[in-house]
Amino acid sequence: MDTTTVWLAIGLCALITFAERAVGPVATGGRELPPVVTRVVVLLASALLAALVVTQAFADGDRWHVGADTAGVLVAGVLLWRRVPLLVVVLVAAVVTALLRLAGVP
Amino acid sequence: MQPARPRADEPWRRGVRDSLPFATASFVLSLSFGVVAVESGFSPVAAVVMSAVVYGGAGQFALVGILSAGGALGSAVGAAALVNGRFVPMGFALGPSLRGGPVRRALEGQTSIDVSWTMAARGDGTFDRTYLFGHSAVQYVAWVAGTLAGVLVPGMDARALGLDVIFPAFFLALLVKEVRNGRRLVVALLAAAIAFALVPVLPPGAPVLVASVAALVGLRENWR
């Protein structure tokens, strides 16, 4: 990987991400969202978070993949549901994943 | 004894305080980003600069992953743009709660990062912007500092240590808080199913963006 490609990639990624974060705030101005849009907006976080978790835990790039990390995330889910503190959850999930990999699980 | 006066900076302080437990997780996550980026051929400076100017973990991992797998510049940047594409709907949601003219709003919108955005949401469609700034500032420091720590630790195998599960575990924590409300649980399950089904069909990042359509069930009034 040459240096020019790396810096070009970083620059483009930064510009695009900036634009992605800026377009909504600039376009909406100080206006209030119509109630129907608000009803969608309050549900957006749940949809995005669920999709992020699933694609992290059950996919590797554009392939479905179940492995040690899937088990780690499932353990995290159970602990979180039982209201175990986040740091403990993250630690246990990482340890479970690491131990499974040590045992040869991909 | 005098009654405690309400302070103007109270939401900012609350944001900072609430951000700290998540900052620890962010630190470890960005540490693993630093390790992975350097392993993939990024210089240490490039890895730290990327965290400072992009400030979006999923997009950064996507870009580095595709470049190190021999992917073209265009596909790497495109994948990162798709993964970070969720910032577009998030920005439209956040927009009305920000202040000032276009330039200031564009800059204020840069504080949007999943964990801070989710926790700054008041639940009625509006956001506490001062809380968001406090929360996001701590995340930013943790994110850049973590990457710096990662590039300074030579030869650590982030995968063997299971550090790659921190990212999904982190988002799962936010999700669990959200879905204790039944309606949101339905939306989350729907989005999860959409994203899962689209994994083999679309490039990485796109399934997450498309899955956000699950929130459209909110179009139905009085739906529960």
From TrEMBL, chain A:
Keywords: Membrane, Transmembrane, Transmembrane helix. The keyword Cell cycle does not apply. Pfam families: AzlD. The keyword Transmembrane applies. The chain crosses the membrane at residues 6-24, 36-58, 64-81, 86-104. It comes from the Bacteria. This is Branched-chain amino acid transport protein (AzlD).
